[in-house]
Amino acid sequence: MANRGQVQRPAGSSLQGKICQFKLVLLGESAVGKSSLVLRFVKGQFYEYQESTIGAAFLTQTVCLDDITVKFEIWDTAGQERYHSLAPMYYRGAQAAIVVYDITSQDTFNRAKSWVKELQRQANPNIVIALAGNKADLADKRMVEFEDGQAYADENSLVFVETSAKTAMNVNDVFLTIAKKLPKSEPSGPSGGASSRRLDEGATDQASTGCCK
After folding, report:
1. Of all helices (H) and strands (E), which one includes residue 132?
2. Cβ distance 159 to 128 under 8 Å?
3. Low complexity composition bias: which ranges (predicted)?
């Protein structure tokens, strides 16, 4: 199951042994589909009725690029307001974030903008942020235009994509795009803070086994 949703290495190539590990957090209003996006990416599954996340859920998944394997440690946070105070605990130290809104709800788009501003103020200054307009399968009920999402993303140097956890549209692509943007080199100095954690080939790491076979 852990292999589904990955970008597979071309036949005949071999894993070079470089595995970079990154913390990624999902933020957004309740019921925008954060958990559904993660479930689609990690397990290739979708449930029409997904229970609300309590606090946060933790999952892992790997993405295979040409020369390395990127392992995501994914924190799927609850969107309810009562859990907002817990959010910094999850995005602190994260190298990547996906801020999700529902294209059928203007309010969730406005809330997504607030999350972006909070990340820009308080998160890792080098964090890679993606803005995902989810539920693209409900385009006939659209309240947020694609151009509005793209314009906001361009103004704030964000990755932007519209997704559908239900149809799997662009779900893998958003994680792959983030993986490509993340720095893969080791930190240059002791005070720099690791941008990624490199796992040596053969190290015990269950989530990375089976990748790129």
Report:
1. strand 128-134
2. yes
3. 185-196
Those residues whose C-beta lies under 8 Å from the C-beta of residue 28, and which sit 6 or more positions away, are: 34, 79, 99, 100, 101, 108, 111, 112, 115
The tokens describing 43, both together, are 């397990």
Residues 186, 191, 192, 197, Cα dihedral to 10°: 40
Q: In the structure encoding, which two tokens stand for residue 10, read together?
A: 């071309």
Dist. CA 53–CA 74, nearest whole Å: 14
* Residue 177 half-sphere exposure toward CB, CA atoms < 13 A: 16
Length of the chain: 213
The pTM score is 0.79
Q: What angle, 0 to 180 degrees and rounded to 10, lies between the N-to-C axes of helices 171-181 and 34-43?
A: 80
Burial degree of 25 (CB within 10 A; 0-12, 13-18, 19+): buried
Mind listing the pLDDT tens digit for each residue in 39-73?
999 999 876 655 555 556 789 899 999 889 999 99
Q: Which two tokens stand for residue 52?
A: 């609300």
